[in-house]
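Section 5.1 Outputs to date
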Amino acid sequence: MVGSIAARRAKTKRGRREILKHEPKMVENPKVLACLRGHATSSVVNGVLKEFYSLRRPLAKSFTRKNSIRPFEAAGEAPLEALLAKNDCSLFMLGNHTKKRPHNLILGRLFDGHLLDMVEFGIEDFVSLEAYTGRKRSLGIKPCVVFKGDFSSDPNLEKVKNLLLDVFRGPNASEVDLAGLEAMVTVEVKDGPRIVIRHHRILLKKSGGRLPRVELEDTGPTMELSIRRSQFAAPELMKMALRQPKGLKSKKVKNISYEEGLGDTVGKVHVQKQDMKDLALRKMKGLRKGALKAAEQGENENDNAEN
């Protein structure tokens, strides 16, 4: 899609702006999620697609028309890539429902207009946002994402974690306001393997001190997913997708290191050996050169007298 747009010659200012929009950038735009329906869907699949579209807005597009895209089958990637390139989407969520794979959900992403990786989930349990009572959290805001469980036990689980983080990440934020931390998503891995996703609302209450007391309230949606099929990118392709431009790489500064975890900056200062005689001390009368010489002469005279 990018190549076809760049091959044309713009005749208007709007056309030139459209070409510049699709050119490579130092910092890419946030990824847009495409929510697609397969040739046959169920009420559970439609509910999950609707909830993810609401949570991801405005970085999401919903397609209600049914299509026969099957990305795991042979030659099934081409129509999917063409549809996503036409709508400028880098993430996709495809839901379908068959007798062999009931309540099926495929989650994947693209790189350079081509399919990078995707994972197929089975929806075991689903509770929508409307089923929860009480005050609902605001939709379309950037949440805190917490991963629970041993995702590092399996390399495939680490890739699933990275894929889910791309879905919930949203736009990049340079600063965070404490009052703006309203939503929280917990992703827990269990035996099977199964993925349990819960959404919470963060409540900041009075604690009698400077920092507030934090409480979590379940707001939904809640879903339990089982991993079925997966197709991950080759290590060489993933390395190319994770490569950063030279302009974004920070130059290494001498004698400065960063602690892992807290991210504190530690600096090392090299100081030359100091000569204690040249220190600028308080000039006391007893420490003057004349007084010191007189004191030394007095000590020598006393020693001679004793001898």
